[in-house]
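Milestone M4 deliverable, item 7.
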Amino acid sequence: QVQLVESGGGLVQPGGSLRLSCASPGSTFSAYSMHWVRQAPGKGLEHVATINSNGAMAVYANSVKGRFTISRDNVRNILFLYMNKLKSEDTAVYYCAQDDPDGPRGQGTQVTVSS
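Output delivered:
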């Protein structure tokens, strides 16, 4: 079972920035695409971003395109999500997932965008 540990969330004002991290100890990290997904209060899971195994390609949800950047460090086995120009509608619990975006996730990290 893959272990995923998200961190970096918090309370931020609209227009602010945050960097989320997802640590995945183990030797399989670099072999798989990685995903960020989020769940807002009372809503279902939403795909945010995906990065391929070597970090050369990324895709984003239209709602975050141009504001969020996904990246990965295959030496330290860490996935990142840089979030800029945050909006209230970005408020959610953010999760990372390996290979299957609907697969096992960590405990998540709460992001709250509010003034």
